[in-house]
Amino acid sequence: TLGTQTDYRDGETQTDPYSPEYVVLGGSIPELLTLATLTWGRGLPAGLDEVEMIERAREKRAWEATLPPYNDVSQLMKRRKMMDAMEREEWAFREQEIEKLQAFRLKVLKKLLQKRQNNQNELDTKYLDAHWQNYQKAKEEKFKKIHYDCAQRLRKLIAKSKNVMGKLERRDIIKDYTDFSSQTYVPLSRIGFFPDNHSERFVVKSFYHLNTFAGLHELEASLPDSITQIKIKPPEAKYPITGYIRKSARLEVALAQVHQ
Description:
Blueprint: E1 39-40, E2 43-44, H1 48-65, H2 76-162, H3 173-178, H4 213-222, H5 225-228, H6 247-259
Parallel strand pairs: 1-2
């Protein structure tokens, strides 16, 4: 009932394509045997480079067929010149291949360097953004502190200007409550104090939905019986109830009445 996902594809588990057995006739050199060095994954399936290599091999075999024979001494210099020209062509072709390979490696190296530079630029940008945010946060905190200190000093200067002579005055509570413009009737935010800040910290976050009847019923069912079923224990008499009341008890009742 469980499925598994492997790390390998079906193509990676296959072997090389099947190559049937062959027999070479005597005296014949099949052209197909010149490709025996090519295997699956190493030259096969053939690409543009392999096709160019095959064409160059055909041209070389055709050139070898036009060479003068070894036993002809009169054509020895011609044979040597043709071989020298072919060797120069081979060296020129190898130089072209080397230059092509170097150009490809240089292109790959440029791409890697560009990728590394882009990664470094991205890291530098993130680093600068983090520093900029930290500096912005520090600047905002500094601005808040400056505004708070400014408001506090302004309040001190206003309070000091009200009593220029420096006389000590008691607070007149009746005057504060009769004057509706006094500090008694204005919110504390006037002097920079906000008692309702972060009031959400004191909100009770219950697991039950207390704004629905089902939530209240569930909460009530989870409480112990000692909370929902209160047992009232009658108070015991401080003094034994008899026909005669002590003088100390009568005196306590009289004192309680006088005190009330």
